Amino acid sequence: MPSDRFYTRSDYPRPRTTALVWMVAAMVAVFVLQSLLLLPWFGASHTMPDALRLTVRSLEQAQVWTLLTHGLLHSTGFPLHIIFSLLMLILLGRELEPQLEARRFVLLFAAALVVGGMAWLAVHWNQGGTHIGPSAGLMALLVVLARLYEDQRMSFMPFFLFTLTVRPMQLVYGLAVIDTLLLLFVELPGSDLLMGYAASAHLGGMATGWLYFRFFHANNGWDRAPGFSLPAWIKNAGKARPAPSEPAVSRPARDPYALKADVDRILDKINSVGFAALTDEEKQTLDDAKDLLSKR
């Protein structure tokens, strides 16, 4: 029937906006608002950036939200800062969000911002200063992606001069060495790095990514990590007794013509929105059709 075709129906669930899209939109919106508020027409106000940026004074005043919100801010005088951040977030997020799922992807990024911010505070507690940008979160994503694809090779052309082929973890190790040297010989002595480069925050983000992959992702949870064992009374506390099995109920035979029409409709739906959008009843219909074909 024409009403069974996918292009005549509008009851399918629409794809949800991904967490990556919301994160990119938030960064762009904050950057635009930053730029507008700094214009003379708006009084060149620094109120919003001051409330979101991470400083030692903000923590002394119990503004703990700045451990997260500093990742939304970028330098308005250097547009390449936000361009590079967005490119990195999109490139890494497109690969990682489908594998980690939205909730873990966002929590990993947020946790890296907090840990990176705390690492920066530990280094600059007596020096002072200001820290903005999502670099710690990006470093965490890079480490997790490198661990997932550590056996693959990647090629790029530094400054378009030559082709360099490395494994992802080799790139991470190289960045870790550079950041460690900058931390020891530049940031800790109190010297200013170019464009507010924060090696301490980068290393904090890398550590967060490594810990996440080591104890959460690779082992499907911190309680499954090698060498870790929960006490027996904790393991059994949340276990419910198995419910008594119910006798199997035979399903009545379906009309082959009606079944064929349902299968056509379900196949159209799969072609339109994917198998994951099917209901349990629709999946059972496909199983019934499979059983019917196997009996012929």
From TrEMBL:
Membrane topology: Multi-pass membrane protein
Annotated Pfam families: DUF6576, Rhomboid
Keywords assigned: Hydrolase, Membrane, Protease, Transmembrane, Transmembrane helix
Keyword hit for Zinc-finger: no
InterPro entries given in the database record: DUF6576, Peptidase_S54_rhomboid_dom, Rhomboid-like_sf
Main location: membrane
Domain DUF6576: 261-288
Spans through the membrane: 20-44, 64-93, 105-125, 131-149, 194-213
Gene Ontology molecular function terms on file: serine-type endopeptidase activity
Name of the molecule in the record: Rhomboid family intramembrane serine protease
